[in-house]
Design goal:
Layout: E1 2-8, H1 13-24, E2 29-35, E3 40-45, H2 51-61, E4 66-69
Helix pairs in contact: 1-2
């Protein structure tokens, strides 16, 4: 199952790496792709991932990052 999100606040590849790492660590997540240029993130999982968990993982990656469903 693919879920798409808009991520704001990222300014460099280091930001992308942190967001990818934190969201990838969530239980059930199989793959995460984050695009700095588009400000988008795609999360691939077998089952839907609770949006609150996505929000918490993105916040853990950086205080200035926000996420919204795309």
């Amino acid at each position: 199952m693919l879920a798409n999100y808009i991520v704001t606040g990222m300014t460099c590849q280091h930001c992308v790496n942190h967001v990818t790492e934190e969201v990838s660590a969530l239980a059930g997540v199989d793959r995460v792709e984050v695009s700095l240029a588009d400000g988008r993130m795609t999360v691939d999982s077998a089952q839907p991932i609770d949006f609150d968990l996505i929000v918490a993982a993105v916040a853990e990656a950086g205080d200035d990052y926000t996420v919204a469903p795309a």
